[in-house]
Design a protein that fits this description.
Number of helices: 7
Shape: globular
CATH superfamily: Flavodoxin domain
Largest sheet: 6 strands, parallel
Radius of gyration: 18 Å
Structural class: alpha/beta
Helix content: 40-55%
Strand content: 15-25%
CATH architecture: 3-Layer(aba) Sandwich
Distance between the termini: 33 Å
Number of strands: 6
């Protein structure tokens, strides 16, 4: 009888809601896309999460509404975000109406960037994206000691190395964990 009661209680409890993370990025050479995939791997390490990885130009209003957290990535363009990323933020504000609706407020957010050289503007690029997310009321999630995850993608170490991908994975895991806490 106790087993039957326990089974009944378990079946009647509402299922834990999945935490949904959107990873949105712009990539021309493939390096920022590689960082996006690494970040998504980290998200998948947290039980009860679902992750969607999309080019930022393909992100829809519904994608953003469903997300409990979002990560935005960009290569460095002249010490700032790629024009495609800036355009997306403007689109989210005006066309999608998130400025007036405050529809992104209190979601967890993270940023990541790639740039050719060690002092190529990655911190400025991440700061620019973080500032845009903050304008929407997004709660910024960072890895310990930095603004976000970044990769130096030219000489002497072309591409995204394992350490850089590892930081992106750690950030993805942390983003999913914090998004889950904020969702409660």
């Amino acid at each position: 009888m106790k087993r039957l009661a326990l089974i009944f209680v378990v079946l009647c409890l509402p299922a834990a809601a999945d935490v949904r993370i959107l990873v949105a990025y712009h990539s021309k050479s493939g390096n920022t896309e590689e960082m996006a995939k690494a970040l998504a791997e980290g998200v998948r390490k947290v039980d009860g999460t679902k992750v969607s990885v999309k080019r930022i130009k393909d992100v829809t209003k519904a994608d953003l509404e469903k997300a409990d957290g979002l990560a935005v990535g960009s290569p460095v363009y002249m010490g700032d975000v790629a024009p495609e990323v800036r355009s997306a933020f403007i689109k989210w504000s005006t066309d999608f109406g998130f400025w007036d609706s405050r529809g992104l407020q209190d979601k967890a957010g993270a940023v990541f960037a790639t740039g050719a050289f060690p002092s190529n503007g990655k911190e400025f690029t991440m700061l620019s994206m973080a500032q845009s997310l903050a304008q929407f009321g997004v709660v910024l999630v960072t890895p310990y000691g930095t603004m976000g995850a970044s990769a130096t993608t030219y000489k002497p170490d072309p591409g995204v190395d394992e350490v850089e991908a590892g930081i992106a994975r750690d950030l993805g895991k942390r983003l999913a964990e914090i998004a889950g806490r904020l969702k409660k």
